[in-house]
């Protein structure tokens, strides 16, 4: 993963932001024993591979937002990679796909064709909010279940999980904030290069 990534973060000061921070920083790491899992801010990666020679603030300021991105959580998924070990998958609705396609076409690898960007957004892009980065694999079934229970008991709604009842503003968020983060660097060098409120 070269260059930087565009992150979509929940609006500052909202309940969903506070709940996600608690899950990422305190609740979920407790299941990973002695492994020092990293702490990070809640976000969905919209695209990576943004060349480092581009001006970070200009990148974010030049993103054309036709419709505010609408994040809707669908399920809790245990992934097979360090960065997807525990994630909240997001519905690939029109607003999320349009934002990812636009950012990919305009910036990824210095710019891609519209066809390539659309194909990537439809077939490869898997929008999610990570809850933990971990080397532990496989994840024991009881840990996976416990994390999902923590997510639900925190009040987060999952559209794909029956019996998942939550307040409408706890099943995701609308709008939020875009950040540019140099994710090709080591984790401890992931700093915010630029940000833009939507």
Automatic annotation (TrEMBL):
<dbReference type="InterPro" id="IPR012386">
    <property type="entry name" value="Cyclic-nucl_3Pdiesterase"/>
</dbReference>
<dbReference type="Pfam" id="PF07823">
    <property type="entry name" value="CPDase"/>
</dbReference>
<dbReference type="GO" id="GO:0009187">
    <property type="term" value="P:cyclic nucleotide metabolic process"/>
</dbReference>
<dbReference type="InterPro" id="IPR009097">
    <property type="entry name" value="Cyclic_Pdiesterase"/>
</dbReference>
<protein>
    <submittedName>
        <fullName>2, 3 cyclic phosphodiesterase</fullName>
    </submittedName>
</protein>
<dbReference type="GO" id="GO:0004113">
    <property type="term" value="F:2',3'-cyclic-nucleotide 3'-phosphodiesterase activity"/>
</dbReference>
